[in-house]
Write a structure and sequence with these properties.
By secondary structure, this protein is an alpha/beta fold. The protein has a single domain (12-233), classed as Rossmann fold. It has nine helices and seven strands; from the N terminus they run αααβαβαββαβαααββ. The chain has helices at 12-22, 26-33, 37-49, 66-71, 85-92, 133-143, 161-183, 186-198, 202-212; strands at 56-60, 77-82, 101-105, 118-124, 144-154, 217-221, 228-233. A seven-stranded mixed β-sheet has the order 3-2-1-4-5-7-6, sandwiched between helices. Helix 2 (26-33) runs antiparallel to helix 7. The protein is globular, with a radius of gyration of 16 Å. Bound molecules: S-adenosylmethionine. S-adenosylmethionine binds at residues 12, 15-16, 19, 30, 61-63, 66, 82-84, 87, 107-109, 124-126, 129-130.
Amino acid sequence: MTAPVAGDPGRAPAVEAMFTRIAPRYDLSNRVMSLGIDRIWRRIAIRELGAAADGDVLDLCAGTMDFSQALAGRARSLVALDFCQAMLDAGARKIPAGTVLRSICADARSMPIADASLDAALAGFGIRNVPEPERAVAEALRVLRPGGVLVVVDFFRPESLLARFLDLTWNRTVLPLVGGLLTGEFGAYRYLARSMHAWSDRAGFERMCREAGFAGVTGRELFPPVASIVIAKKAG
Ligand SMILES: C[S@@+](CC[C@H](N)C(=O)[O-])C[C@H]1O[C@@H](n2cnc3c(N)ncnc32)[C@H](O)[C@@H]1O
């Protein structure tokens, strides 16, 4: 099965096809490969939303909707957007009945969402896969209300010594092997490791957010320093 080529500007259809193939086993491989640590990273990301988590929240590149699931019962409404229907279908089963959730199958570069209609956007491990990520960032800014916040958790190009060591040992060795064994998609997990290198470091992504027009932009490494978080606020 052909995997997308990291950094290829035309990779979107191959990325969508890859997630369609791994959707049934995505959650299992996620928990195993992160040793459950992704749940801690997600809690930190939600905390960064502050009071905006009680409002109308976009789960951007939602995948199997882990963020939507965590916010169900708290957010006034949720919009889960992803261009892979199979991932959204796998996620929808996890959302409690009665949650106000709109599931949208669309590209993050062109979101069918009204201007200034949401309080917060959360993007977990997704924007890295979007060719022209600056378009997804501009779209996030457009759909947020003044004072709204975008929180991105992702694997940026590793920089610190410890991050580079973990990249060599964990990302490039353990992750493709374990992910491949769990899903049968070795190529997909090699792509995921390579995609961290083919896009931005965290500082570059923070700059991208500022250039898009976000006002307050901050970021930091999470622990262990495999993933990082960026928080970008829309001027009020
Ligand atoms: C690694 S998964 C992350 C899913 C989820 N956010 C999480 O935290 O587990 C990346 C998701 O981004 C989606 N994605 C990649 N490129 C996209 C694009 N251009 N537009 C919308 N979704 C995209 C994929 O379909 C996939 O579901």
